[in-house]
Amino acid sequence: MNELQGLLKDIEILRDKLQKMINQKHGDLVDSDVVAVSKLLNAMNIY
């Protein structure tokens, strides 16, 4: 269960970082950095 909690915390941290990055890029959702982090976050959410 501890490993699952760690993974959920990592997902939450990435989600926060993605939101900050989107704000820094002025909402540019096709920016390569935003797309890369978004894909990573989506992959983590699958499992």
Descriptive overview:
With 47 residues, the chain is mainly alpha-helical. It is built from two helices and no strands. It has helices at residues 2-24, 32-46. The two termini are 14 Å apart. 0% of the residues are buried.
Question: What ranges have pLDDT less than 50 throughout 5 or more consecutive residues?
Answer: none
List SSEs in N-to-C order.
Answer: HH
For the biggest sheet, the summary is: none
Overall pLDDT, averaged? 87
Task: Give short descriptive properties of this protein.
single chain, 47 residues, mainly alpha, 2 helices
Quick structural gist:
The chain is mainly α and 47 residues long. The chain has helices spanning 2-24, 32-46.
Annotate the secondary structure layout:
Blueprint: H1 2-24, H2 32-46
